[in-house]
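Following up on my earlier thread - several people asked me to post the actual chain instead of describing it. Fair enough. Here it is, all 102 residues.
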Amino acid sequence: MQNPKMLKQLQQMQTKMAKLQEELDAATVTGSAGGGAVTVTVNGHQRVLGVSIEADALEEGPELLADMVLAACNDALDRSREQAAQQMSRLTAGLGLPPGLI
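Reply from S.P.:
Thanks for posting it. Predicted structure:
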């Protein structure tokens, strides 16, 4: 036998999850390296939207520039994942789920 209250809660959760997915798509986070010489912007789904490199960074040589781009990407992705985790925890608050389940 289905529990109508549980079914309603599940439908509400699905609606909230769809909204969260839209918010993550619209959210942008920027990471940087080299004192801001390289910046990378990603969305909440960890897709890179843009890379910006200051002209001075080009003088550092290809290896250092590559390291700065990599560091900026990782910084932006870490920030994006942190933001997504915070939003997900707000969504699942009060459900009584063990941490890390979703």
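The mean pLDDT is 86. That should answer part of your original question.
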